[in-house]
Amino acid sequence: MENNRILIVEDEFVVAADLEFQLQSMGYQVVGLASTGNRALELAGREEPDIALMDIKLNGDKDGLETARCLHQTLDIPVIFITAYADSELLERAKRSEPFGYIVKPYSSKELRATIETALYKARKEKELRESENRYRTLAESSPSSVEVVQNGRFVYINPAGVRMFGFERPDEILGVPMLDVVAPEYRFKAAERLEETEKGRGNPPAEFELVRRDGTRILVESVSAPTLYQNRPATLIIGHDITNRKRAETLLAETQQDLSAAQARLRELYHALQRAREGERCRVAREIHDDLGQNLTALQIEISLLKCTADLNQAPVAERLASMEQLVNSTLLSVQRISTELRPSVLDSLGLAAAVEWLAGDFEKRTRIECRSRIEPEEIRVGANVATDLFRILQECLTNVARHSRASWVRINLEQTEDATTLMVTDDGIGISDIQSNGAASFGLQGIRERISALKGKVDIQGIPVEGTSINVTIPREAGAE
Ligand SMILES: Nc1ncnc2c1ncn2[C@@H]1O[C@H](COP(=O)(O)OP(=O)(O)O)[C@@H](O)[C@H]1O
Ligand SMILES: [Mg+2]
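That is the input. Now the predicted structure with magnesium ion docked in place:
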């Protein structure tokens, strides 16, 4: 037992002195004896006792009941009443004032001690509860989330954030209102179910509700609820926050994302359609130049040879003219072949991808003097016409890059086909591409490679090591590359 401090309020001195003696022998500290209510208040203010033992009947302005009320309310000091049997009506009144205990004379010291200890325990618990309630109240009052307590289906507490959320100005405008009244009709069943859950002592996970504000507008709120005690009686604690704007933004974002991916898909389709159209056009123009122009030029060559046989070659200007004409036709024929090959090498259509790759490698080496080897495994690569075109154009872009950017002395081309995939790898020993260069937004060449490969559901891997070189590896699954 801590050395608890007790104030005795008793107007019969002998009784008071006896009580003091008993208490001291029990180990309590008596901080004063007061014979009137006013004196008791004065002493209590100065000494701050833990508890007061008080006779209900007191001389002076204030009787025991009144004094006890003041002590409890102003100084937070609990009171035990002492009374005689004869005061039974007074005792009833005292009981109704919810004292911390009462003792009826005559009493044993055991009874006295038990009553004091019980009262001290009760007072301490009440104080702890009040403090904890105050802490939570402060927390709730400053919370940005809405905090409400519902008892018997009605709001009994709401914090300022809650008042604002519902569109009110003061808590009393909503206190006492049935909770379901603020829930949108289609959510009432769910809300009532959750309320029942907490009444059975179970908490509820977060859920979304539409609530109706004072002005009739609706808001979307996410809330959790849990059983609690409010003023010592079971209640439901609800914590919520307005997610209307967040939801709106999320919906908008989702819609925008959908629009964006649809636009991207359309753009991609357009790109491929353009690419196909361009390839078709090149093919047509190349054939036309080759067949039409080429045939006419060849006919012209023949005409010139015939002319050479029949004309009078002793006439110098005629011979000269014919020779220069022949030269012109020959070089035009070469130009026509070069242009048509550049547009679309006929080897790709006539002999297939493997032959076209070998031809391109040879042509590249001749033009750039960069050693270019190709390894093709197996000899015949079986792919559809569109895939062949894609891989050929990718190789062309890679080789152009080697010539333009790499400063390499050699380049290797590897074209492989397995059961599952077709792989093209172009490796050089140049300065090495950097990550920034390979991912750059303006890298249209590499971007084009990625586009072509993504349409074929394949993968592109670009690796660069400074000074050692660059390796570009594209793989397409066999089903996409199948003929
Ligand atoms: N084989 C390579 N070696 C070194 N750098 C390269 C190589 N290929 C590409 N690059 C770098 O990557 C960049 C992007 O290439 P690309 O998309 O084809 O665009 P472009 O050729 O029009 O510059 C090039 O500008 C170059 O800096
Ligand atoms: Mg390029």
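The first helix runs from residue 13 to 25.
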